[in-house]
Amino acid sequence: MNNLAQYLKREHTHLSEIEAAEIKRLQHALKSLWVNIGIYLAITAIEYWLASIGHSQALRADAMNNLSGVMSTFFLIVGLHTATDSDDHFLVGKRIPLLNGRNDDRMQLSRFRMETIFTLITSFIIIFISGQIIYQSLYALFTAGISHHPNIYSAYGAGIATVLMAVVWWWNWHNGKRLKSSVLMAASKDSMGDVATSFGTLVTVLAVFLFDIPWLDSTVSIIIGLFVLWSGLVIFQESTLNLADYVDPDLEDRIKKAVLNFGEVHQVREFRSRYIGDVLVVEMLIMVDADMDVMHLYELTERIEKRLEQQFQIVDVITQAVPDPGEDATKSSDE
């Protein structure tokens, strides 16, 4: 019983350390997103003001696009706040069930799915925005010449927005890579679309202002809208696959081969892996020698868990072992 208590305590400590490290990483991502909102609001205010005095529909549309970026970022912040909730007893307002007199550690890990859920919501916003851009651009294309032509103030607004959005993109991409955060990588893809939108607006405004080509505004905006749509669809695909417990089959094959490298493992009969937010967990059924004693089996599963954690950054491995029936049959025939 003492050994069992020590094992459960060690498992609880291990999962608690994983949870604490993940929460710390998400909290850093949360701070980055607040920086995003501040810059997005500044860009929106500058663009909308210069669009008003510069008579540019394209710049005004870009300002509204960036304002929607504030909304999508806010959704991501809500998701991260839920995922990093310090209350260990509740998950989204519901009490976490007890296991062996303590909160279920694996249920607590499931809170990191909120990161993916709100990333999925963000993809819907991006897709909706792209639809608005394409619709408004098509409408303007067939009514070219009705609105005022943009002046040089619109070019100033688009130029400032391009530079600031490039800073936002780099900030999100850099921190997303450093923290391995799918939320910040999704935000970087969104901000990359905004960089393209602002730069396209700048080129369009200058072309219309210098060469009097009113149809170019709408044509370039349609292309930008399609780019934003593609970014939203990619984020939607990744988030949906994550929530559907999809893991790259090639990665799963490499994990199985790593397990089979242990001589005591005869087969990996059942294998299931899934992401909880950015956390990868694995459950599997292995076949071992029928005569293997419990202590040897326990040491084997511990070695497998450490190997997978080091090689593939898998934070939780659940291993069930069964005796190899083929080996029993061989022994019986020998006797």
From TrEMBL:
Which InterPro entries did the record assign? Cation_efflux (IPR002524), Cation_efflux_CTD (IPR027470), Cation_efflux_CTD_sf (IPR036837), Cation_efflux_TM (IPR058533), Cation_efflux_TMD_sf (IPR027469), CDF_Transporter (IPR050291)
- How is this protein situated with respect to the membrane? Multi-pass membrane protein
Give yes or no: UniProt keyword Metal-binding: no
Mind telling me which residue stretches traverse the membrane in this protein? 33-51, 63-84, 116-135, 155-173, 194-213, 219-236
Q: Name one Pfam family in it.
A: ZT_dimer
Its subcellular locations are: Membrane
Q: Which UniProt keywords apply?
A: Membrane, Transmembrane, Transmembrane helix, Transport
Per UniProt, residues of the Cation efflux protein transmembrane domain are 111-243
Query: Where would I find the Cation efflux protein cytoplasmic domain in this sequence?
Result: 248-321
Transmembrane as a keyword of this entry, yes or no, is: yes
Q: Say which family it is in.
A: Belongs to the cation diffusion facilitator (CDF) transporter (TC 2.A.4) family.
Protein name in UniProt = Cation diffusion facilitator family transporter
Instruction: State the organism named in the record.
Output: Secundilactobacillus hailunensis
